[in-house]
Design brief:
This protein has 9 helices and 17 strands. The longest helix has 15 residues.
Length: about 375
């Protein structure tokens, strides 16, 4: 049941008990060798049950346990380590501080994967700190290519959307347009430098510094007619005598783009004689051109006369008035000074003379000029 091993040189005796034997003390007295007797016992070690490393009992095995159960403890340790780290197939190089960064994280794998590919720095991500805008509001910036300086141009603007939309369709520098308009307006909102009516001559030179001109050209008025009944006394006539049509007034200048024709008024009528001549447009108005046309607004026509109080009569018609306004700015010029206007004044229509019932002749045409 037991065995002895003597080691005379050392003077030690070792007695080894088999498992399951109760320990006992055996005293051997040797007078010759005075050897010490050493006993060892082999007992079963305490072994816990664990699946993961947190199930291991730190106090196992105790110091008095034998080595025969060490293999069970080693297998348990290996098993719990592999169960705890089933997917570790290589060396882990992170230190405890780096791994401890994960302490307290409750995000899911999918949530952490959102960071995949992110290259922003902490400072760049911190820009979002405090942002309350929605995704839709942030998406408003999608496609914006403006610089900060360009966007800052809006700083301080109090105009409404409607007011800003007034700029729709603007295709050139607004200040330049305002400056040009200011020059033009200043020319037409002060007293004109020259106002005159031309009733004779054939040309006129626009004065220095002029920037705008208003031209009003009138044809001559039509002459009046006379109608005398026979046996009315010493009147010298015994029938109807029609007056003459008014003459046409013209004015032109190629630089200004002006080419005006203002027709004269028709002659008067008496007792229906020559009544067709009072059709303004057919007989005289259609020849007028070169600006805004105003019929029967020019030089006055002559009065018609008669001694037949039962008969009707019509006075000579007024001449046609043609109006034209031109500015230097509209022609891309800085001034219209020294330009020469060439014109011809239409004469008033003639009327019969030599009786006590003489009608009136038409008034001569004219040209009225307003220059700024």
């Amino acid at each position: 049941m037991w065995s002895q091993i003597f080691d005379p040189p050392v003077g030690l005796i070792s007695i080894k008990f088999k498992k399951q034997l109760k320990p006992c003390l055996v005293v051997v007295v040797s007078d010759i060798f005075q050897q010490r007797l050493i006993f060892s016992e082999e007992l079963i070690m305490a072994l816990e049950t664990a699946t993961y490393i947190n199930g291991l009992v730190v106090s196992n095995p105790v110091a008095t346990d034998s080595l025969s159960g060490a293999d069970d403890h080693m297998r348990l340790i290996k098993t719990t380590i592999q169960n705890t780290f089933p997917n570790i197939t290589g060396a882990i190089t992170a230190n405890q501080s780096e791994i401890n960064v994960l302490d307290g994280i409750t995000s899911s794998t999918a949530e952490l994967n959102i960071l995949a590919g992110v290259t922003a720095t902490a400072a760049e991500l911190n820009i979002l700190d405090g942002v309350t805008a929605t995704a839709a509001e942030l998406n408003t910036l999608d496609g914006v290519t403006s610089t900060a300086a360009e966007i800052n141009t809006l700083d301080g603007i109090t105009a409404t959307t409607t007011e800003l939309n007034y700029l729709t369709g603007v295709t050139s520098n607004i200040q330049t347009q305002f400056s040009t308009l200011s020059t033009t307006v200043s020319n037409v909102n002060i007293y004109p430098m020259d106002v005159r009516v031309l009733t004779s001559g054939t040309s006129y030179t626009i004065p220095a510094g002029a920037k705008a001109i208003l031209i009003k050209a009138s044809g001559g008025g039509g002459g009046g007619s006379i109608m005398v009944n026979p046996g009315s006394g010493n009147l010298g006539i015994n029938n109807t005598v029609l007056g003459g049509d008014g003459g046409t007034t013209t004015l032109s200048n190629s630089t200004l783009g002006v080419n005006i024709t203002a027709a004269g008024g028709p002659h008067g009528t008496n007792m229906a004689a020559g009544s067709n001549t009072t059709n303004w447009f057919t007989n005289v108005g259609s020849s007028s051109a070169g600006g805004d046309i105003f019929y029967n607004a020019g030089a006055s026509g002559g009065r018609s006369t008669t001694n037949n109080f039962d008969g009707g009569r019509e006075d000579g018609g007024n001449g046609v008035l043609v109006q034209k306004y031109v500015t230097a700015a509209s022609l891309s010029l800085t001034t219209i000074e020294n330009l020469e206007l060439t014109y011809a004044i239409g004469a008033g229509g003639t009327a019969h003379t030599g009786t006590s019932l003489d009608p009136e002749a038409g008034r001569d045409g004219y040209i009225e000029l307003w220059i700024w």
